[in-house]
Amino acid sequence: MSGIYIHIPFCKQACHYCDFHFSTSVQKKEAMVSALRKEIELRRSEIAADTLIETIYFGGGTPSLLSVTELQSIIDTIQQQYRMADTVEITVEANPDDLTTTKIKELAQSDVNRLSIGVQSFFEKDLLLMNRAHTATEATKCIEMARSYFDNISIDLIYGIPDMTMEQWKENLAIALALDVPHISSYALTVEPRTALASFIEKELIKPVDDAVAEQHFEILLATMERHHFEHYEFSNFGKKGYLSRNNTAYWQGKHYLGIGPSAHSYNGVTRSWNINNNTLYLAAIQKNEIPREVETLSTTDKYNEYVMTGLRTKWGVSLQKIAHSFGKTFETYARQQAQKHLDEDLLVLEGDILKVSKKGKFLSDGIASDLFLLNLK
Q1: Do residues 42 and 261 make contact, with C-beta atoms less than 8 angstroms apart?
Q2: Helix intervals (H) in 150-240
Q3: Pairing with 113, which of 99, 106, 167, 269 sits 20 to 30 Å away (CA)?
Q4: Pairwise CA distance, residues 283 & 290, whole Å
Q5: Closest CA to 35 of 244, 289, 245, 264
Q6: φ, ψ (nearest 5 deg) of residue 148
Q7: DSSP state of 112
């Protein structure tokens, strides 16, 4: 087991693009914290006694809606139930409007040692379009304050926003770099079904997302991060030396993790499971000492497809030797055959036995990976 993910299913308000599980009512917050701690205890047997927990990640939702006392109580429960690595990375996702000076100081005095701040944009018009709860000024101020107390900080930025010009995107990156954060996660705005954003676009209240513009933004992102010596270790993630997210790295390298809370996913190499995405039903089940989840046993084909999907998004690529060893020679032969057209088009490169997406193919990495998927072998 590499890590534990804690899903905090509360937000102040709904971002227009978000399809994650959350509630804007915090009436059950206290009960939820108790339930999360109880689930951690109930699932103790799923992790071998000699396994070290290397990362704890609070995601959501908006984990920074919890008090530092509540966050620390969950960390304490994990520490009581599992063995911790000496250098365990403990990350809390936070929104700028929650990161007051007092909150930052309290977090710095807790066991939390990494902040992931959901900035998304330093332009007010973008924040309004996305229905973010913070302002651009709050974003800048909270990062400046956080840098005084935390060494390990990441921020999120979104590109491909309707009406975001190339110059505005460059300015977003310039502001982030001037704030001297050592890690940036950057995502293209995607239109998920049944979100407010999808509805607004359908009603022509907002312009559609333009994939061509998003690709241009991505190319600017790559060039800018390279100039400033950030390592592009996964499609959406960039870190300076020593600041790659250990949680992200573990996920993309296929390490095991335990997911706690409503809608949280878990993976142990053999099965994948996911908790129910309903706060009320989750609380009721945990109260009865039940884990409200579904479990899927992964076939060899499932494991192969997942390895290809995750590997091609990263700087580490996909090892053909590992495919042969872990899944069989038939899978390796298939992967080579499917990769050849992308190698011919310089979208993939082969370094020894490692397949990697080329600079030319980076924006297309998910599509390239899907071409290597298998559907019928066991």
Answers
A1: no
A2: 166-178, 196-202, 211-227
A3: 269
A4: 10
A5: 289
A6: -75, -20
A7: -
What is the Cβ-side half-sphere exposure of residue 139, based on CA atoms within 13 angstroms?
24
How many CA atoms lie less than 13 Å away from 229 in the CB half-sphere? Answer: 7
Q: Within its chain, how far is the Cα of 200 from the centroid?
A: 26
Here the tokens at position 253 are 């390298």
Which residues have CB under 8 Å from 307's CB, separation 6+? 254, 318, 322, 323, 326, 327
Question: What percent of the chain shows pLDDT beyond 70?
Answer: 99
Structure tokens at 122: 């330093």
What does the block give as tokens for 329?
């020679």
Task: Return the SS3 of 3.
Answer: strand
Contact between 24 and 12 under an 8 Å Cβ cutoff? The reply is yes
Residues 6+ apart with CB under 8 A from 240: 182, 183, 229, 230, 231
3-state class (DSSP) for residue 14: coil
- State which H helix or E strand residue 341 sits in: helix 329-344
> Taking the complete model, does pTM exceed 0.85, yes or no?
yes
How many angstroms separate the CA atoms of 64 and 60, rounded?
A: 9
Query: Would you say 7 and 263 are in contact if contact means Cβ atoms under 8 Å apart?
Result: yes
Q: Name the residue with tokens 């390298």.
A: 253
Residues written for the chain:
378
Positions of the chain with pLDDT under 70? 1, 376-378
Averaged pLDDT score across all residues of the chain: 96
The helix (run of H) or strand (run of E) holding residue 109 is helix 101-109
